[in-house]
Amino acid sequence: MLYQLNTPEKPYTFEASSFTAACVVATLLGGGFYSLWQGGKQVMPAFMFGGAEKWYQWTFGKNFQDVVQEVSLDEIAQIYLTLLVSCWMGANFRFKKFLARSVSTFG
Fold first, then answer.
1. For residue 64, what are the contacts with CB-CB under 8 A and spacing of at least 6?
2. pLDDT tens digit string along 28-68?
3. Burial zone of 81 (CB within 10 Å; 0-12 exposed, 13-18 middle, 19+ buried)
4. In which band, very low, low, confident or very high, does the pLDDT at 107 lie, cut at 50, 70 and 90?
5. Domain count within the chain
6. In angstroms, how far apart are the furthest CA atoms of the chain?
7. In the β-sheet with 41-44, what is the strand arrangement from edge to edge?
8. Any long-range contacts for 41-49 (C-beta under 8 Å, 24+ apart)?
9. Are 4 and 12 in contact (CB under 8 A)?
């Protein structure tokens, strides 16, 4: 299933095998500052002011640490890698555009 991780900078799309895996990755990666969306609807809020434990208890019937244990470490690593490459490619593209503008301005 495809999910969108909304960060303060920009959204990133990734694939996860389950809603549980997507939520765990969003929480671990964002430290509470990222929300999770699917199909244009928010499926997990950002937890900037706390509330993650209550949300996990209400949504999954268990605390965050127990939910994390249900997700494969390999899947978490794969999603992290996908997001890291996506982020790097975006930064690389922006740097090349900046460099091209700088060269044309000063060159």
1. 27, 52, 53, 56
2. 988 989 999 999 999 999 999 999 999 999 999 999 999 99
3. exposed
4. very low
5. 1
6. 61
7. 11-15, 2-6, 35-38, 41-44
8. 43/3, 43/19, 46/6
9. yes
Sorted by sequence, the CB contacts under 8 Å of residue 10 that are 6+ apart come out as 90
- Residue 79's domain spans which residues? 2-106
Q: Determine phi and psi for 41, rounding to 5 degrees.
A: -120, 140
Contacts of 55 (CB under 8 A, 6+ apart): 44, 45, 47
Look at residue 95 and tell me whether its pLDDT is greater than 60: no
pTM above 0.85, yes or no: no
Residue identified by tokens 């992290």 is 80
